[in-house]
Write a sequence for this structure.
């Protein structure tokens, strides 16, 4: 059951940042994206409101990785989610989320956890309704089932999710400022139980996602969860500038810290080109965030050997004590 609310603003205010309205067209599709992200330590999400400027330029990357969106039929679980529009695969968490998008809704039909447990929602989670803009909110009850790992015991999941567009504005990230973002706050309370022993596990999760139009996945995400009152793996992650759509004119990044990789895709080697000569660290990561190469350079052109690498998607990061910038590298 879903409840939708629209906030009516009584007072007048001066808008310093453009409001953003999310539409179905920002999310519709069947995947096919490979989006670079950087996982970081948990950072408080900051204030809500209109025309907010958030500063996350200081956050340090723990591990870069590539988030994949793909058609449900291209996952190992097509029969479990026949109506899903696309799946999102996180190689760090080793999880799949299956989303359905139509002209009015974006729902979560189910998910697969690292153990391979498949949770199907008989009453899906309502994640967004369209159009969705600052002040809009949804309260949705959801329910699902899954088999306890390695057994035939049916587990039941029931809960409620509250979704609210609580802010809009601009975010400072390590590579620059991204404007015209809508922040959506998700607050979930749910429990897993079974009919055998009456054991109940209680979950609470608060997640903030900063969305920009034409980008299926968030630019920035901050999440904190508890299981039976115990905090579990809080995190912050943000999208590489190479994954952003429609932001080329939006980013305020010093020219001396932008770089290009050529050729890309690469087979034997690629060259990193930049305009500056300041000392930098160059790091190469695989899609799971494992560091493969590390070097230091004061040149504006540096060769990166790729001939020994397996075919796939990698991340190249340059950094100095104040900044970092990351791009994807494809080896074929």
């Amino acid at each position: 059951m879903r409840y939708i609310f629209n906030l009516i603003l009584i007072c007048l205010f001066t808008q310093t940042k453009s409001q953003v309205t999310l539409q179905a067209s920002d999310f519709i599709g069947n995947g096919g994206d490979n989006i670079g992200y950087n996982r970081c330590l948990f950072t408080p999400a900051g204030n809500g409101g209109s025309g907010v400027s958030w500063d996350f330029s200081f956050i340090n990357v723990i591990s870069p990785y590539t988030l994949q969106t793909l058609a449900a039929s291209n996952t190992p679980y097509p029969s479990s989610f026949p109506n899903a529009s696309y799946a999102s695969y996180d190689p760090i968490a080793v999880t799949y989320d299956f989303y359905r998008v139509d002209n009015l809704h974006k729902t979560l039909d189910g998910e697969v956890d690292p153990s391979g447990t498949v949770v199907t929602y008989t009453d899906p989670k309502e994640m967004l309704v369209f159009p969705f803009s600052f002040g809009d909110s949804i309260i949705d009850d959801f329910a699902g089932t899954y088999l306890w790992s390695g057994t035939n015991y049916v587990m039941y999941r029931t809960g409620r999710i509250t979704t609210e567009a609580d802010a809009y504005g601009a975010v400072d990230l390590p590579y620059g400022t991204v404007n015209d973002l809508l922040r959506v706050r998700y607050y979930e309370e749910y429990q897993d139980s079974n009919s055998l022993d009456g054991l109940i596990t209680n979950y609470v999760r608060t997640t903030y996602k900063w969305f920009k139009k034409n980008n299926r996945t968030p630019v920035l995400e901050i999440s904190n969860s508890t299981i039976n009152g115990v905090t579990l793996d809080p995190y912050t992650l943000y999208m590489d500038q190479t994954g952003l759509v429609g932001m080329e004119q939006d980013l305020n990044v010093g020219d001396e810290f932008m770089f290009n990789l050529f050729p890309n895709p690469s087979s034997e080697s690629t060259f990193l080109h930049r305009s500056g000569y300041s000392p930098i660290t160059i790091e190469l990561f695989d899609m799971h965030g494992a560091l493969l190469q590390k070097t230091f350079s004061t040149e504006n052109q540096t060769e990166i050997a790729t001939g020994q690498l397996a075919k796939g998607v990698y991340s190249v990061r340059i950094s100095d004590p104040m900044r970092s910038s990351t791009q994807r590298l494809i080896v074929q």
Observations:
- The mean pLDDT is 86.
